[in-house]
TrEMBL record:
UniProt cross-references to SUPFAM superfamilies, sorted A to Z: alpha/beta-Hydrolases
Any one GO molecular-function label of the UniProt entry: hydrolase activity
Listed name of the protein: Uncharacterized protein
Entries under InterPro entries matching the protein: AB_hydrolase_fold, Plant_Biomass_Hydrol_Est
Keywords: Hydrolase, Signal
Length: 562
């Protein structure tokens, strides 16, 4: 049967080429180019879909959907209803039928009956998911209770040195009443907002081990309008099976948050803090190696991973993006901020989301700024969705290399040299340094430079073989920013600022000797020269908030820039 389909495809390829890329994908939407091909081609397209359904039974309902869509575009209501009805027998029925090509059928009694059935199936699934969530909710409550008991035990330790040692070495004792590879969890951000996410435990999970962890961010942010009742294993394909499987095989605890067009990791900024907060919550329930937490993603998820490198990197040891567009969408892209960590970038040559030439230019700029940026290219007319949907050996090798790059990275929150720039102090912190107030009316220092480059080679969204005649700037700088160069050695901090009015230095025994005075020099002026001690209440507060066994901050100095 597959041979006959290939022969059939060879005959009609010349007239169906613009829509075959859609029909052979699992995308339920037919592109506008296909719609413009002309009435005479839809009959052949329907036949292709039916032949493909016979050849690949696993994909047959997607092909029936293709056939229904093609028939609807041909204004053949009977066939459109016929094939749409077949789709109702599948688990994709509740996820499709949003195409505008079906709009003309909305008043047809038969179509109304199909939509009524879809709504019934959606409600049935919703109720099933609510019931399935109950056991996970109780499991989460139990794990968080066990962590609270651990935190309560810390409050009874009075000597600061003993408390510090206990924070670094001790973990919550957890019992996991619900077995299995996947765990559904929720982060409550307010009385009306629950942020669902999925945790995947690694192969051979041992509760007594400390595991590295990776947060995987999904793409297609604008298409997500609401949170599901729970994120379960049926949605792993949405995050990309290569990410799921490689994390499982590589021995990482994997975290898969679900975002919407309002609350996400790219834009607007409303939900940007959700990912760091869920990482902190996961640390309360599972034994995570604080030195080895990573964030990665595909498409909008890759842009999200890049954005955490630029805006809020402190929790993470390394960052990676597949089919990335490296641009902060809510402010300036201060690419030199990447000097504090690293980024592993995977680009394909036929990606409409960001041109291959631009990836090379960004990698070159990062190298000039001494940012640890590794750029991997995949050639061969590989489109935007290839590395998230394909299961071939090429894709597996790409993800093996990506994970191999990440897992050797270890966070050093006490590194002696930091650079940080921001245009919003909500994202003013990196490790032990925080910008609390900017002075954007002040003169900018010569070393604070808004880097940029021109991006050409953009490809057509629908037909990426077509290169567009357009050029744009890689980064946008909508607001003035402030920046800091900072270092420390031998109990002395040297800080150089540009457009900064107020900053904070966080202290740790890993950085300074509290038995000696601490000195802080800002722009050549000695602004602090005094002994300081560990603050027990400050230690407890930050530890209870962050559950970080490595970056334990024992005091802080808030200083006005002279």
């Amino acid at each position: 049967m597959k041979i006959s389909i290939h022969l059939f495809l060879g005959i009609i390829l010349s007239i169906l080429l613009p829509i075959l890329s859609f029909a052979q994908s699992r995308n339920p939407a037919v592109d506008s180019m296909g719609a413009n091909m002309g009435r005479q081609n839809w009959g052949a397209a329907i036949q292709w879909a039916l032949k493909a359904a016979e050849a690949e039974p696993a994909d047959k309902y997607w092909r029936y959907l293709n056939a229904a869509d093609f028939a609807s575009r041909d204004h053949n209501a009977d066939l459109a209803i016929k094939y749409a009805t077949l789709v109702l027998e599948s688990d994709i029925a509740t996820k499709v039928f949003g195409n505008k090509s079906f709009d003309w059928l909305r008043q047809d009694v038969r179509w109304i009956q199909i939509m009524d059935r879809v709504e019934q199936l959606k409600e049935k699934q919703r109720q099933q998911r609510i019931q399935a969530s109950l056991v996970f909710r109780e499991d989460q409550r139990q794990l968080l209770r066990q962590n609270s008991e651990h935190l309560d035990s810390l409050t009874k330790i009075l000597p600061v040195d003993m408390l510090y040692k206990r924070m670094r070495e001790a973990r919550s004792a957890h019992t996991y009443s619900h077995p299995g590879r996947y765990k559904s969890h929720w982060l409550e951000m307010s009385d009306s907002l629950e942020f669902p996410y999925l945790v995947q435990l690694p192969l051979g999970f041992d509760p007594n081990r400390h595991y590295p962890a990776i947060v995987v961010l999904h793409g297609a942010i604008n298409r997500q309008t609401q949170f599901p009742n729970m994120v379960d294993s049926t949605l792993t394909g949405f995050f990309g099976e290569p990410f799921v499987e490689q994390a499982y095989q590589s021995g990482l605890i994997a975290i898969f948050p679900y975002g919407t067009n309002r609350y996400n990791w790219m834009m607007p900024d409303d939900g940007f803090g959700l990912v760091p907060e869920l990482v902190k919550q996961v640390k309360k329930m599972y034994s995570i190696d604080d030195r080895r937490v990573y964030v990665a993603g595909h498409s909008n998820g890759a842009t999200g991973a890049f954005s955490y490198l630029m805006k809020q990197p402190s929790l993470f040891a390394g960052f990676a993006g597949v089919n990335n567009r490296p641009q902060v969408r809510t402010g300036g892209t201060f690419i030199k901020n990447g000097i504090n960590r690293s980024f592993y970038n995977v680009a394909t040559d036929f990606d409409y989301y960001y041109p291959l030439e631009a990836h090379r230019a960004v990698a070159n700029l990062a190298s000039q700024l001494k940012v640890n940026w590794e750029n991997q290219e995949l050639l061969g007319h590989r489109k935007h969705s290839y590395l998230i949907s394909s299961k071939d050996s090429v894709t597996k090798e790409v993800y093996q290399k990506l994970f191999a790059n990440l897992v050797v990275k270890q966070r050093d929150p006490f590194q002696q040299n930091l650079y940080w720039e921001c245009d919003d102090v909500k994202h003013g912190r990196v490790d032990w340094l925080e910008l609390n107030q900017l002075d954007t009316m002040a003169q900018k220092m010569p070393w604070q430079i808004n880097q940029n480059l021109s991006v050409a080679g953009w490809r057509h969204v629908v037909n990426p073989e077509v290169v567009l005649d357009s050029t744009s700037q890689a980064f946008v700088y909508p607001r003035r920013s402030g920046a800091v160069n900072a270092s420390y050695s031998n109990n002395r901090f040297e800080i150089e600022t540009s457009r900064v009015k107020l900053l904070t230095i966080y202290l740790s025994p890993e950085m300074v000797d509290f038995s000696r005075p601490v000195q802080v020099v800002i722009n050549g002026t000695l602004v602090f020269n005094s002994a300081t001690t560990a603050d027990r209440n400050f230690m407890l507060g930050t530890y209870m908030r962050d559950t970080d066994h490595q970056a334990i901050w024992t005091n802080r100095l808030q200083l006005t820039v002279p």
